[in-house]
Structures are given as structure tokens and as C-alpha cells.
Amino acid sequence: MACHGEIQAATNNFHEIQGIGLRGNIEAYRGHISRGNFDVAIKRWKEGTSRKRNLDQFRAEIQVHLYLRHLHIVSLIGYCIDKHEVILVYEYMVHGSLYNHLNETNTYSLNWEKRLEICIGVA
User: Fold this and answer.
1) Which of 57, 56, 88, 58 is CA-nearest to residue 75?
2) Are 20 and 41 in contact (CB under 8 A)?
3) Ordered structural domains, the chain, with CATH
4) Which CA distances in Å does 52 have to 44, 56, 57, 78, 85?
5) SS3 readout for 41-80
6) Rounded Cα–Cα distance for residues 92 and 7 (Å)
7) End-to-end Cα distance, the chain
8) What does the pLDDT read at residue 29?
9) With the C-alpha atoms ordered 118, 119, 120, 122, is the resulting torsion angle positive or negative?
10) Whole-prediction pTM
11) For the segment 87-109, what is each residue's pLDDT rounded down to a tens digit?
């Protein structure tokens, strides 16, 4: 995957309408990769935050995805790291993240049986 240029194009230059969330120093965007025709979720560490902290979080997330593969864990598609930005690219989850479902912040919530099944499977 091309780095920054393709990601900028996928998110319409990180336009706010493409925004799907903000947690701490990480912004999330929905994007569309035309080469391959698929939707993605893009995590972008906000500028102005500690570069070392951003890189530490980035490395930790990469490590998790190197060793874990599961039906209920979103797949990491690619990443971009340059002198100005740290970005991760994931498959886009149409009905929202597992975090949202487990915390009932989404209209599409999971029943307790399904939650338990997912937790046991991932563990």
C-alpha cells in the first residue's frame, strides 16, 4: 500500500466528515481504497502529541496484530510511518467496533451470550 498519498486520498485528506472516532491522542477515519475497492478504518495519531509515545503505542499495536489472528479481531491491512505521522490501516467494520458493541455505545449491541462467546474465543 502506498503510504501517505493513498491514505490521504482514501480519507479525502482526513476530512472531518470521514471521522469515525477520537480516543485520547488517536483519531479514526473511514476511508475507501479504490485500488482493490474496499473500505478501511484508519487510525492516525494526532500531531502535537509526543512522537515517542505515539511510536510506543504504534509498536505495541503492531506487535498484537503480528501474533493474534481471530474472527473477532479486526485485521491490520497496513501502516504508514514517516517523520510527521504514524498511521495504521484496518479493515472497516460496518457495524462498528467490538469496543462499541461491548460498551453498548452502538445501536447494534451484542447479547450476553455472544459477548461471552467472543471473549472466550479471543482469550
Assistant:
1) 88
2) yes
3) 4-92 (3.30.200.20), 94-123 (no CATH)
4) 15, 6, 9, 20, 12
5) EEEEECCCCCHHHHHHHHHHHHHHHHHCCCCCCCCEEEEE
6) 14
7) 31
8) 92
9) positive
10) 0.74
11) 889 888 887 766 666 665 656 66
